[in-house]
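Q: Could you fold this chain for me?
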Amino acid sequence: MGAGAAAITVAIMNDPLRMKRITAFLHPEQHREDTGFQAYQAMLALGSGGSTGLGLGNGRQKLGFVPEHHTDFIFSVIGEELGVVASLLVVLAFAAIVICGLYIAWNSRDRFGMILGTGITFLIGLQAFINIGVVTSALPNKGLPLPFISYGGSSLVMMLGSVGVLLSIASRAGESPPEKTKKREPVHEPQELLPDSSLMAPHVAIACGGTGGHFFPGVAVARELQQSGARVTLVVSEKPVDQQAVATVPDIPHWRVPAVGFSARHPIRFLLGLRAAMKTVRRHFESDPPQAVLAMGGFTAAAPIWSGRRLGAATFLA
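A: Sure. Below is the predicted structure, expressed as structure tokens.
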């Protein structure tokens, strides 16, 4: 711990900007016109707000006196316009978030959830603590936004995503953690050999739509599998080129899926087509589940591979 404190001290002393911020924090009156201008004006804003504030939108320090008043120093605007009562409510709100986050982490179903929930809670709470401490001149200027309140899209997205993860941990708190299954030794028992007529032929789905470069290699693989006794179904798109190609092999059954190729100009169309293809493939796989799924590439490969993995089938990407 002493080595860490020494390293921080050396890092501060070797950086002129950090030294100026520390000096302005220790002697705010002497640096109120230069390095400490922002913190000094923030203190004036908090002091002029009183207990109930000047009224929403009536603050004066935001009119060019407090730099970055909409981001790092938004708490000073809250104090000036809404008063110390609203400021304390903001502090209590962050305290409630920290308490709830620690409660969720403590009651999580496994150690990973506890560590993740604790980290997210301290991420939000520590950032709010530093921001409020800087605005009230209790800490040196650091430049951190106030979570959920400061202007900035990336910060807001990350904070909301963090809260979403916390809620996910809370929703799974009542579930029992997955038990580790012990590896069982194989038991070799004598089994009666069945005649060949009673053996089930394995079902293989081959996704080979899109272009001839995907389709005809898929057909060649399908022929070889049929000769070895497997039952094969081709998965193709609804494009006319696929329908013309599949008509040349009427002896091989096929499924049509509404997949579309990716286009940077129409990404929404691609996502909608992928969603429809997933539904169609899942419906086919549930009615006649394959033991293996082989994808020959192309835009029709994504849905069969994904659905096959979810159903526990062996998946291969050629």
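A (continued): The longest strand covers residues 231-237.
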